[in-house]
Specification:
This protein is α+β, with helices and mostly antiparallel strands. It has one domain. Helix content is 42%, strand content 17%. The chain is built from seven helices and four strands; from the N terminus they run H-H-E-E-H-H-H-E-E-H-H. 30% of the residues are buried.
């Protein structure tokens, strides 16, 4: 029997996901399926630093394994992954501003801007996305075309 709660969940998912991340879009590097190279996405928000997660605390979402430093962080993520997941599927935000799709990110090179997590290739790129006027806006403008390119590529693979 389908409940009203289930129907609301299906409708909410249909409305929210088209503008959000979808399977195949998460940056898991060149090998494996671990997001953010095993760093805890929630820790960026709660501890304001990059924290390596424990393999014993993982959650699968959108085809990637997300690793956490605590059970509390795992629960927070599982209840609202879109809130904690990095923008652009975890690809380099500054690279996206230049129209590039950079998988090789440094989990230590990050910024939270307007409540959203942006990962980058290195500290210089992280500074650029925050400090150069219009850089974040360029990444936001470029992302739909880069995302389409990425998703087309994943259909072939």
């Amino acid at each position: 029997m389908i409940t009203n709660k289930f129907i609301v969940l299906i409708i909410a998912t249909a409305i929210i996901l088209p503008g959000q991340l979808v399977a195949g879009e998460i940056n898991t590097g060149y090998f494996g399926n671990v997001a953010i190279k095993g760093y805890d996405p929630v820790a960026y928000f709660t501890e304001q630093r990059a924290v390596k997660g424990s393999q014993n605390l993982s959650y699968d979402w959108l085809g990637a394994r997300w690793i956490f430093a605590s059970e509390a962080h795992k629960t927070m993520f599982s209840e609202n992954p879109v809130k904690f997941a990095p923008q652009y599927g975890g690809h380099c935000a500054d690279g996206v501003a230049y129209g590039d799709l950079t998988r090789n990110i440094d989990p230590q090179a990050w910024r939270i801007i307007d409540g959203k997590l942006y990962l980058n290739y290195d500290q210089g790129a992280a500074a650029e996305i925050e400090e150069i006027d219009g850089q974040l806006e360029k990444s936001q403008q470029n992302w739909p075309a880069i995302r389409a390119r990425l998703l087309d590529k994943t259909k072939v693979e």
